[in-house]
Amino acid sequence: xxxxxxxxxxxxxxxxxxxxxxxxxxxxxxxxxxxxxxxxxxxxxxxxxxx
Length: 51
Description:
This protein is mainly alpha-helical.
């Protein structure tokens, strides 16, 4: 999955999950979660490459 798609997907999930708090708040949480997942994936890939 391209990083941008992952971010948009995360924002969409966040908007759905955070529907009770408001779509904008949920989207922010989704974007943050998407960024964290992306950073973790990149870190794991770098670790795997260094072996």
